[in-house]
TrEMBL record, chains A, B:
PANTHER family: HELIX-TURN-HELIX TRANSCRIPTIONAL REGULATOR, ICLR FAMILY, HTH-TYPE TRANSCRIPTIONAL REPRESSOR ALLR. SMART domains: HTH_ICLR. GO terms for biological process: glycerol metabolic process; negative regulation of DNA-templated transcription. Residues 5-67 form the HTH iclR-type domain. PROSITE patterns: HTH_ICLR (PS51077), ICLR_ED (PS51078). The keyword Lipid biosynthesis does not apply. This is Glycerol operon regulatory protein. It comes from Nocardioides flavescens. Gene3D superfamilies: 3.30.450.40, Winged helix-like DNA-binding domain superfamily/Winged helix DNA-binding domain.
Amino acid sequence: MPGTIQSIERAAQALHLLGAVPEPLPLGELARLLDLPKTTVHGIVRTLCEVGFVVQDPATGHYSLGSGLADLGRAVDPHLLRARVSHWADGLAARTGLAVEVAMLRGPTAELVAHVFRPDGSPQRLRVGELVPAHATALGHVLLAWAPVASRVRELALTAYTPTTPSTHVALGRALQLARRQGWAALDGGLTLGTAGVAAPIHHQVGTAVGAIGVVGPSDQVLQPSGAPHPGLVEQLLAAAHATASTLRDRL
Amino acid sequence: MPGTIQSIERAAQALHLLGAVPEPLPLGELARLLDLPKTTVHGIVRTLCEVGFVVQDPATGHYSLGSGLADLGRAVDPHLLRARVSHWADGLAARTGLAVEVAMLRGPTAELVAHVFRPDGSPQRLRVGELVPAHATALGHVLLAWAPVASRVRELALTAYTPTTPSTHVALGRALQLARRQGWAALDGGLTLGTAGVAAPIHHQVGTAVGAIGVVGPSDQVLQPSGAPHPGLVEQLLAAAHATASTLRDRL
DNA sequence: AACCATCGTTCGACGATGTCGAACGGAACG
DNA sequence: CGTTCCGTTCGACATCGTCGAACGATGGTT
């Protein structure tokens, strides 16, 4: 039986000790209990502080368990995501003149958790709560591209809503690869001819996206004749996504 | 600013990923998301499995968060300790003919969480819930000797109940050092003249004791004229303490 | 039945990183 | 003011983590 990684075991022991007492522990005490030199323990708790599993009381220098541990088992609540994203989504709609939608992956679909109307006063219908097929929307492409279990794509039923809907796994795979490469996704007429969307991932943990934010509107207002998004659109989307992700990392 | 420990950071990233999805992740998927070779990730998750932070589904081989993480923030519940210790405490009382008490540290006192009567049928009073001064009992000496924050001893008010109560910090310190060295504590007449106790720590995490188990009775039945415990008494105590600790580590 | 792909796992070479003694500045105490 | 103890930094060194190669097991395909 091969060995395990000593530094991870030691970190776990430090966490156990910090969890065993309600009050913060000084470094020397931790070192004494772990039977390790202070500098060794200091390296461990400094790393645990950086990843949020341990916090250091600035006044006393003592250490205790951090909220990062409690957060591990919790997926981001849709209401929390909506709360955090709405400010940026409002601004994005105002600046782009387009409707803004935010979605989270729900099996083969994208569930809209936030929707800001395009600001031109035209009649619109609130779509929050609606499930849209992930393969047929830019939002869905982003969610699939950054889903933890990418192999799930093989299981999707790829209904062709329009001639431009990716309706084979090869076509969808290519679109997702392109999204991963460029960091965003665009799709023209995937669900409705004449309507296009561009979306970007909202990251919470390394490598995956908790949601996606996108703009959607008439194709000629979202994309240039070349098929590329209008100048500045992608940058604004990425900025909104990044800002939302930052607020998600804030502790309440 | 000096660096942090890469392997601990990587372990934390693995835990975040496992926490981000409700279903278990295969090793290859974890490796892809972490952008690390499979063998590297395997070493990390094997270690996390060993410390209980991750579990592996035996059927599929996939990994998910373990209960060890949730356990970190929770001290052992007195009712749980009582439930786990009672079998061993009953046996100890039967074999030694002495009353058995189990306690947990509560500030400067030892709180009795379990009490088994001496089996001679004499009238006795149930003492569960009672707080006894830690410095004046063998149980309390054990709890103080293996407390996470040893420096708290300085803050104790050392009331002298009998001439043999350790009533200076020096005397108490010596008694605790002796306890740590020999792995158990004995005290004759600390609280009541003519009554002696011997106690051993119940460990849950490395280096600390979650509780203590001890026998208490007339001095001549607990200790030999030399002051040493009766033969076999310490071994039986340590066995009961160890068995209790083992059941505490079991997952319900 | 044979072949193939992919899985989790083990082995072991190698050098990158973790370990930890020495030493630091700061805070608290007598 | 001197002393003690704290958390922290530095840097030498060799231990340990990394990871390519390869394994047996499993499931799917022909």
